[in-house]
Fold this sequence. Notes:
The protein has about 475 residues and is of the alpha/beta class. It is built from 17 helices and 12 strands. The protein starts with a helix and ends with a helix.
Amino acid sequence: MKRPIKVMGAAILSAALLLGACGGGAGGTTQPAATPPPATPAPPPVTADPTPEPPPAEWQLNDGNPATISMSWWGGDARHDAINAALQIFMDRYPHITVDVEFGAFTGWMDNLSLQLAGRIEPDIMQVNYAWVHSFGAGTNVFLDLNTVSHIIDLTEWSPEMLSFTTTADGQLGGVPHGMTGRVIVYSTEMLAEAGLSSFPSTFDEWIALGPLVSSANLPIDAGNNTYPFFPLGPETLDIVLLSMLYNETGRNLQANGQMLHTVDEVERMFDVFQQMIDSGTLPTWEQQEPPHDATNPVWMSGRGGSVFEWVGNIFLTGGNFMDNNPAERHVEGLGVALLPAVTPGGGQAIMQRPSLVHAISRNSNHPEVAAYLLNFLYTDEDALLAIAHQLGVPLSRTAANIAEREGMIWGLQLEGLALLNANVGTMCPMFEDPNMRPPRLAAIEGFRTRDLTARQAAENWVNHQQNALNQMS
């Protein structure tokens, strides 16, 4: 590290040269003396200080004192390995700091975190959904306001628009978003080609017409022979399909100011479309739909699923079975991406978008500044970012995005999916994944698919039960 005195010396030299170039008297010409004065002897050289000033002391995280913090996240094995590798880099850099970890599958994660928050035993750093910033405290931020540690976390890494997703009504910043995402159709080009199509259907009518061309839907269960133009991976898939259909048909989101924004008639119409998809074999019945609810499902992996509705950030996982013999090139054969079809010809096809995931800090942390420093490290340190690579999806913080682009971490299909997102922007309601709002919707969809509810009854439950949840939160 250069000492400041050298910079100061350069500045003084520049100033001297500038004054010399501009120097002279205050007007007129100075006449030389007739007899020059005798030369003045040069002063003796200045001896260097035998004890030079020591360099400034290096900054120490937590003043060099040992500390243990914790971090939690959900995801698959690849994500676990990547984040652990980044944390190891941090601990190697700061050996007096220990990071304990907690990770697992998403199923049940929200309930577990709710219990931790209630008992004030949550980890110091948490991966959360952006809606939880708004919904866990019924609109009040339950996490640390990151504005209080903005001297440690460089919040200029994110645009104000991105931070607005995690800012509560009173101006508190509940977390920082990793990236933006929305769901797009990921489809099998081979199945389309077999049906004589060169592009994915643009309307639900066209999608439904595809069912009889490719399906073996007469079997009551999936015995390994059925094929489906659309195979939803998990119960949440049809949930977001339904709301996307309503959004594109009406231009209205889920709710506003505690009031549901769709009528029972509007929702019933969407359930009727689902029924047409089931009847045509485009969508599997409840009995044909079997777990696991991810890209390892045998229907999708065996090529018997014509399409799935997937988050853009997860395309590399969904397409893993379709990669050629050199996965390092991230080249996927036989898959394409498309917009969710329009409900009516010429109808909207906006993609409802939200932050892919958010990192928050506990307001009960014993070491909030250490946690903030680690969080900033994970978003700005090149070694850490290279270790995490694409396992959290496409990043949007300035440093992470630049490194991802430079290193080619964004796959071709992801680039196509991102282009669709950027050209067809829709905003997902913050209450969409609220733990009080989502269960009534999932129950209505399940009751409809198991034939325990008619389309009308499912629509009534969908609207009324969510309104009851909103009323209880007000």
